[in-house]
Request: fold
Amino acid sequence: MRRHPFSIRVLAASLRAPSAWINLLLVFVPIAFVLELLHGEPTLLFITSALGIVPLAGLLGEATDALSAKAGDRVGALLNATLGNAAELIITVVAIRAGLLNVVKASITGSILGNLLLVLGASLLAGGLKNGVQKFDRSSVSVMMTTMTIAIIGLVVPTLFGNAIERVNHASVEYLSIGVAVALIASYIVSMIFTFRQPPHQADAAEAEDSPARQGARPGLLHNVRIALGVLLGSVVLLALLSEILVGAVEPLIKAQGLSELFVGVIIVPIIGNAAEHLVALEMALKNRMELSLGIAIGSSLQIAVFVAPLLVFIALLFGQQLTLVFNEFELAALLAAVIITALISLDGESNWLEGVQLLIVYLILAIAFFFLPNGADGVQALLAR
Reply:
């Protein structure tokens, strides 16, 4: 029996387990706190808190991996899939509470773009340079890209219909976003149920044994459940505190450096939240394990689109904010471009370093465009009105 290509184990392939040298960045955690107490310069605050978040996200991943190993393959895979974007989710929740809704929506766009173009591009480039032409299961990627397309449709529809609906009743746009969010979360839950009902497969078992989870689960303290729970909770608390510092420095940073909210949200925030996970995709490509590498890049994008983004709609309501799934035309154009180029490159079941360069070029083009986009909704709307 063929295994289900959009497997929860593919999502579980996005286990962080960063290289040991990343933990050296933990020194920036106390530095960020000290600078915050001393009311340090916003740009320096942003940089130090961002550097502190990177290793904490990695430790959160390692603790999750250790707990997953104790919970069994399927429950553990679900745990990893659910917490795969925990660091970025914490950052966006803090941003929602601060009222930076444009940054939050931009970070949703940026997470999808970053995984499909930057992470996958770097992985194809590194893997291709080391291993030459690399092969992977075309059916797995086909199903993931089809699901990714459906997810993007779920983000496009509120924007296209919302513009017309808002002219009659603004409240209806929020109800439209809530309805689409429910549908996307339902699709995520259904895919999880379908996967859990699949019989075990030998290939799945072999993959699980040799997965990044097993490789990242080092012998030692984290094999103790209590210590792993402590590390997980401690990482979450520190991530929340550093996210407060990071988000608090966003608006002063924008003013001081002349950056736009879209550029900060689309480019900078997603790289910070997913840096540790990105390194694992690169490591898997270098080891010639492209199915896992693609599972990290595309699977993480899927989780953002069908679970994290709609979940944020409801989290915003808890804080008395109205976060709709209405994106601007620039974000939609970037998302569609990313999905199309990724599908064209990945659906042949082979990859090489040139395709990696092509994905990185598209990401660079979009990053430059977002950098020069005027700051604030007024500037964007002025361009659209021309």
Summary: The chain has a mean pLDDT of 78. The chain has one domain: 8-373. DSSP finds 17 helices and two strands in the chain.
